[in-house]
What we know:
This protein is 53% helix and 9% strand.
Amino acid sequence: MDEVGTRDVRRRVLTGAQTEEGESPGTRYALVIGIDRYREPLRPLIYAVKDAIALAARLEDEFGFVVTRLTDKEATAQAIRDVLGRWEAGTTPDDSVLVFFAGHGSNHPDPARQKEGYLLPGDAGDDPASWLEEAEIIQRAKKMSARRVLLIFDACYAGTTFRHDIPTGARDDQVLKALVAGTEDQPVLDGGAGSHSIFTRSLLDGLDGWAESGQRPDDVITADELIAYVGAEVRWRSRLRGYQQTPVGGPLQGTRTAQDFELRPVRPRLPAPLLRNIYSANPEDRVAAATQLGERGKSGTGEIVQKKAAELVRLVTEDKVMAVRVTAATALGNLGYVGGAEPLATLLKNQKADGRLRAAAAAALGNLAQIAMDLNLADAATVRREAAQGLVEALDSPEAPIVEAAKLGLGHIRDVGPELIAVLQTAGPSLKRDIVDALACLTLNYSGDEKAWLLPGAVKYRLLHRFYLARRRLRPQWPAIRQQALAVGVGGAVGLSVAYLVLIFGIRPFNPTGLAVLSFNLLPGAVGGVGLVFMPRLVLALSKQPDRRATVLGDITSGIVLGLGLGLPNWYLGIGCKAGVCDLLAVFLPGLLLGLLFAFAFAFFSHRMSLAEALGRSAVPLVALALLGGASSALVRVPPSFSWRAIDPQWAELVRWGIGGAIFAVAVATGWRASPGQERPGKPDTAGQR
Length: 690
């Protein structure tokens, strides 16, 4: 190999989980050869032995190979033949064999004037008879019982491996592949990448995980992936040095049954594609990588979690982009590594740090304490105590985002209630409210745990606790509530207006009060929309457990509000109201009947389905609401002195009122189902997809 100048290239250590599924039960053998010292007239090399030592260590430590290493004078032609001969006789079909050679290479015409490739062993002279033919190594490999064999030659002119005529043999159950440093006409570089040749440096990087293409669900590196990665790396690295070196790789013997040659790590490692994103210049890549690092998953062994935490701590403390640091802090809490508590607590106490980062550290600290306690990790009690202390202190921060994050963090610590109540007794008014809100966060996360409902005796604190709890439960629903209330309210107002137009023009076709009636009906429509949309959610949010009983109560409350809204126009027009308070019952009776009947019907016959859910799932509620609306609205015309024997029905007006009520009811239900905030069952969220 030809000598060039060196340049240090930082090796990024890649770490991650190992997947054992599908691993061959055989033994992995490796013969690693490196020769610097040659006899004259051959020129000595500088980096071949270092290449061999580094590769041997990597194969043994990271991939579990049984390595035979031959360097300098040990790497005689006979010693190499002896090792290959033992493997010819002693390997099994489940075994894997890798042969690596770093040293001088040459090509020489054979009698047929073809170029024959040679590797020069440690005892080589200027006589080609003392050299090793590449064809001999290939033929010995083909005679081995091992079904997976990979040959790697970091030597000059090694491209002849793929050129000369080599009998293919009769085997079709073996995969034999080769990767060489250059073409048959190329000298290759000795050095150029720190203490290694650029070929071996690329090979080592590929084994560290950079060769992973992301096509497999584990950390296995195949020969094809390694060939593709090393080929691309060496080409651009050599061009940077003003030289053109072109590695060559591919199969020397095909197979129909054997798998590709696989390099499967035996120690935990992070996937290289993930590490590529961590060290990417694009902040979005680093944000995505930090999020993935926070996933504990099945690979949550102590070693792998520690390695993930180390990368996250580096991002939190060193990255220049705030979004990356905030995401990494959040991920460190999600990971649940107890060693991450100290940097998070330090960051939370750092008054000079950005408020967004401190807020992320606060929420992450509580999450980390929860995971540590749930998994019963070592030092979990210490982490929990330090987290609770730091978060309680953060409640007194003048920065609202940090206070909010501290509340959320405390809400993750299941048994922190008594500590918060103890602080509550001596806290100031503002801090008291924040502590009660923190207790509401605790209840929100653990509503089924009686310890989370541990509250001070004062009634005002209990009421305040329910208020904060309802507000936090409703907060994620506010966009949907606004959209649905608007759609349902407008639909109800339009339907109610049409209903009264039917009545007015049916009784007195040119009554000038029609426009006034239209304008007034906006109010009951809006009241009906808010009642239908908001009241069931409010009752559920105030309940200790959002169970069937709370659902029924919410629907009944919704029906009452809806009914009162429908009674307002009757009261305004004086329909059924002659004198006295008792006559108001006739005004509000139709709406109350409509709301209550509708609420009871769905509360008791919908299998725990709320009124809102029922309206969003099928067209049956539309028909039911139309029938109930028509029947209850028709009751307006029944005289106050109601008696089955005294009824003097005015059938025409009853029909008009029935039609009007049906129009209103259908408009309300249609507005609900068509509202933008309504979730549609069975339709997944495809936001962000094309």
